[in-house]
């Protein structure tokens, strides 16, 4: 299957602080890929490399086969960018800004813009600079949809949207992508939203990539094993079996890709008594926290 994005050996740092080193990933045509990570792990850095705002210290990033630093006008016309919901020309209302943007895109789909505006009940008379952050995000998203890009790159697409509007937009965006074989690369701090949208995930930690897999495989194989533990001062070494753990009240929770029997075997090395053992299947947010830690 065709790679729409292909990044090879990406390395970047700010001063002496390494963001990541030798990062490799691909995004295939029709894929909806979510980049997950805590603040400071490199999500926005990666977005800025993709859109050509930032040159990596090492490595290259290709979009439709061209270097992201020197994209041709033809390739740029295939890409829709949303950078944290920002939108210019705040003195316009949503009617004026739609007409303005339409002049620059030969394949403009105004019905896509207006369908979303109507669903979200955005006022036609209100100036954009007097809208809330969430309303401005809605307008920006509608303008990107009207461009009908082959690739959409979204940085915190749901910023400022309330829960109902977030769910409405996610459903709308996923239907739009799947009906037209569109490709989406996205980040979001609201991981519950990502679970409804993305097919695959990349999870970043400080310094590099932890995993890159499908959401289904991640949630089917990464589990939480919880049991009673009288000693609150438990210390367990993190390794291939124990990816993370925490203690809350009298229960110890271990997060692992390993089987229950392998986790029990590992725990017994610490002479801990295992009682009231519970195996829990996680949602995406809990799995993310279990893999990366709460702090």
Question: How are the SSEs ordered, and which strands pair?
Answer:
Blueprint lengths: L2 E12 L2 E12 L3 E5 L6 H8 L7 E6 L2 E2 L5 H4 L2 E5 L10 H9 L7 H11 L12 H15 L3 E5 L7 H17 L3 E5 L3 H7 L2 E6 L2 E7 H7 L1 E6 L15 E5 L2 E6 L3 H8 L7 E7 L2 H9 L3
Parallel strand pairs: 3-8, 3-9, 6-7, 7-8
Antiparallel strand pairs: 1-2, 1-4, 4-5, 9-10, 11-13, 11-14, 12-13
Commentary on this structure:
It is a single chain. The protein is of the alpha/beta class and 295 residues long. The longest helix has 17 residues, at 163-179. It has a 6-stranded mixed sheet with strand order 6-7-8-3-9-10, sandwiched between helices. A 4-stranded antiparallel sheet has the order 2-1-4-5, with helices on one face. Helix 3 (94-102) runs parallel beside helix 5 and helix 4 (110-120) packs antiparallel against helix 5. 32% of the residues lie in helices and 30% in strands. It contains 10 helices and 14 strands. It is globular and about 70 Å long. Strand 9 and strand 10 form a beta hairpin.
């Amino acid at each position: 299957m065709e790679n729409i994005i292909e990044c090879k050996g990406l390395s970047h740092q700010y001063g002496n602080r390494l963001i990541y080193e030798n990062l490799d990933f691909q995004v295939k045509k029709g894929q909806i890929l979510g980049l997950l990570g805590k603040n400071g792990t490199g999500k926005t850095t990666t977005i800025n490399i993709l859109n050509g705002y930032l040159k990596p210290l090492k490595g290259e990033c290709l979009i439709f086969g061209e270097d992201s630093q020197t994209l041709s006008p033809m390739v740029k016309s295939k890409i829709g960018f949303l950078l944290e919901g920002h939108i210019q020309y705040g003195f316009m209302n949503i009617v004026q800004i739609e007409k303005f943007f339409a002049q620059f895109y030969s394949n403009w789909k105004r019905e896509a813009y207006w369908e979303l505006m109507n669903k979200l009940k955005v006022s036609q008379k209100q100036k954009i600079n007097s809208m809330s952050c969430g309303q401005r995000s809605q307008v920006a998203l509608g303008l990107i949809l009207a461009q009908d890009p082959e690739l959409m790159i979204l940085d915190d697409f749901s910023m400022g949207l309330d829960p109902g509007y977030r769910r409405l937009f996610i459903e709308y965006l996923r239907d739009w992508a799947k009906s037209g074989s569109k490709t989406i690369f996205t980040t979001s701090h609201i991981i519950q939203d990502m679970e409804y949208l993305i097919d695959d995930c990349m999870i970043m930690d400080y310094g590099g990539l932890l995993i890159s897999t499908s959401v289904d495989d991640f949630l089917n194989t990464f589990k939480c094993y919880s049991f009673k533990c009288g000693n609150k001062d438990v210390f367990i070494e993190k390794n291939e079996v124990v990816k993370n753990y925490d203690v809350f009240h009298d229960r110890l929770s271990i997060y692992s890709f390993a089987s229950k029997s392998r986790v029990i075997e590992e725990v017994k090395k610490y002479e801990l008594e295992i009682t009231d053992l519970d195996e829990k299947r996680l949602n995406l947010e809990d799995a993310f926290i279990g893999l990366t830690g709460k702090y």
